[in-house]
Design a protein that fits this description.
The protein is mainly α and 155 residues long. The protein is built from 7 helices and no strands. The longest helix is centred in the first third of the chain and has 34 residues. One of its GO terms (cellular component) is TIM23 mitochondrial import inner membrane translocase complex.
Length: 155
Amino acid sequence: MAARIIAQVLVAGTQIVGKAFMEAYRQAAANAAKNGGQNAAKGGSSGGSKTAAADAISRKTGMTVDEALNILNITKEAELAKIVKNYEHLYKVNDKAVGGSFYLQSKVVRAKERLEMEWAAQGNPMKIQSEQPAAAAAEGASKAGSAAEKQPPAN
């Protein structure tokens, strides 16, 4: 008796799940046809290839352009001087030496890199030049050099 009930439950459950999958497939196919998903996947529209390139960069960096703009607190129309100013300020404020967050500082750097990648993809390669990272790297190198001078040679 118990085996019969279990079998009936399994059959009913399989039918319900099967119908749900078929309905989801029909809805996905209808949405793709309505939104032109098949045409964009084939590269049939000119906007689809630009979007695909931007999506590829976003997947590679893990950050969208909008997220990068939000992190740097700028708009798409911002001038390069404003972008550099905001980048340098956020980089300095989040420096671990002054009690900042290394995580946030790295997000600021990744946002800058994402914008540079976007500009390069648009055919307008620009670099956000900042004095701070170069100065910090030079300072770190000089500290490492002085530490190496103080240690006795290994025998």
